[in-house]
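Reviewer comment 2.1 asked that we show a complete input and output for one of the modelled complexes. We chose the adenosine-5'-triphosphate case, as it is the one discussed in the main text.
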Amino acid sequence: MGRDERDRIAVIPGDGIGQEVVPAAVEVLEAVGDFEFVEADAGDAVKAETGDALPQETYDLAAEADATLFGAAGETAADVILPLREAVDSFVNVRPAKAYPGVDALRPETDLVFLRENTEGVYSGHEDRLSEDLSTLTRVVTTSASERLAEFACDYVTDRADAGETPGFHVAHKANVMRETDGRFRDAVVGVADERGVDTDEVLMDAVATHLCLEPETFDVVVCPNLAGDVLSDLAAGLVGGLGLLPSANVGPDRALFEPVHGTAPDIAGDGVANPAATLFSAAMLLQYLGHDDAGERVREATEGVLADGPRTPDLGGDASTEDVTAAVVDRL
Ligand code: ATP
Ligand code: MG
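Response of the prediction step:
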């Protein structure tokens, strides 16, 4: 492949353990493919230097690269990640929560993915203080954003379905109470799925919380409005037992940004013992997004293999370093 045809990956380690786990992921990506990596700064450290947590060139890089791998930002997180998600025009947040052999989990049978609406709902930003006593929030739901999410969900489950199996997903909503907004969300999502020949199971979002705790194995792919997806995916994170393990993707129409769910972990930053698994799983999602399905699958399997057999970092009861774990994953590749 010629130089110009290589996928261009923006690499933004950020602060804290982002500086440790993102280079680990780059090392693993280099072991499975030929990519053009372009590194850029964001977060507390660059703000201290320049006064700006997200330099324009970093934003532009994310807005133009085929995919972005981001680590974490500390105090400046909101000033960094919100604009970065906007740079890729992300309309869906993909959050898998899976329990792995070798890792203590409350619910070892958990293996599901949330597809969370990423632009509207109660996170619309339309809040008002109307009087000393009264504040309001406008919940925004559009047919276009709901249908865009539904189209993505249909592609997602169709790609993953086994031959002969009818693809399907759960739709979480509260249309019995929020008849107008969640009614619109529900109608739009179910309408697209019906047209696409995809099965849908409707579930009330509060009931999802209970079912998740009691029988997480009944869920595979759950399509959610913004706030519900935020809360329920954190609940699922608790079930699988480890912030250090959860990857995520912010997907837009033409590009996407991948990041571990965890933050900068200031308590262990600089010690070289951060668990790189969440970022390695994020890198596996990045590979699949770019169409390198095989390489993505290999990275995921190698990372799972190391979780099961060791070496393990201290958060999982081991005494290995980030580098030891990364080297073991590269070895398996
Ligand atoms: P931030 O404000 O950046 O989110 P935080 O103090 O909330 O920082 P998190 O990164 O959210 O820290 O992590 C919460 C806890 O989980 C910390 O004790 C941290 O050490 C641990 N943790 C998070 N990610 C990892 C990881 N990759 N490896 C090991 N431990 C981790
Ligand atoms: Mg945190």
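Residues 26 and 327 are 12 Å apart (CA to CA). We note this here for comparison with the apo prediction described in Section 3.2.
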